[in-house]
Every structure is written in structure tokens, then in C-alpha cells.
């Protein structure tokens, strides 16, 4: 079942991120960040739940566009726990994100997959995404 995440999911989502992401994560900071995301109007956080366990999460946001008919949607995170990766949960989470973004006025969606994971890029291409030229990115001082 795919559903909107709630404050009750914060610890479970944080643990899932810690297990599945290669970067070291400060757990307190992660929990604060998830709580912040759950309270943003232009952000949607959904979880895949199986038998009471959170097996996956997707975070997407609306990027308002001036002068265009629709907004840009962006998937910033999609994670499926290792034991559940062959159960179509990634596709279900992606569809949930697409529906949430369309409901908020988005007419296209982007994702920047981890380039360390070839299977992630293949997954998105299989789901209808296509590669475009790289973006220019500049880190901002904290």
C-alpha cells in the first residue's frame, strides 16, 4: 500500500535512509529534515507499507515555473529497502509521486539518479524518462 507519510513514520524513514544510502547520515539531522519536509506545501512524502513495515519512500517537490503553463516536478529521493526491490514498489512509489505532482499543477517531472547505481538509471528509463544534458550546479555556502 502506498500512502502519505506522517510524523509517525519519521524514525522508520530515517532508518531506511541510513540502511540504503551510501553517505553517512546524522540521524538527528535526518529526522529534523524529514519532519520539515512533511510540513511543506510543495513537497509530497509517500511511503510503501507492507504488513505494517515501511519498505520504501519517495520524496518529490513542485518547482514553480514563471511563463510556462505548468510547473516542474522533481523526485529528490526514492528508496526501496533491499529485501523488497523485486516487488514493483519502486514503480508504485514513482506513480504516487507522479499523481501528487500532477495534482499540484506539474506537467513534467525530473529526477537525478545516483550515477553510482546503474540500475537506478535503467529503472527510470524503463519508466519513460529520457536523458537530457547535465545541469550546471553550484554549491551555496552554508
Automatic annotation (TrEMBL):
Listed InterPro entries: Acyl_CoA_acyltransferase, GNAT_dom
A family per Pfam: Acetyltransf_1
The protein, known as: GNAT family N-acetyltransferase
GO molecular function, one term: acyltransferase activity, transferring groups other than amino-acyl groups
This protein's UniProt keywords: Acyltransferase, Plasmid, Transferase
Domain annotation N-acetyltransferase: ranges: 1-142
Enzyme class of the recorded protein, top EC level: transferase
EC code(s) of this entry: 2.3.1.-
CDD domains: NAT_SF (cd04301)
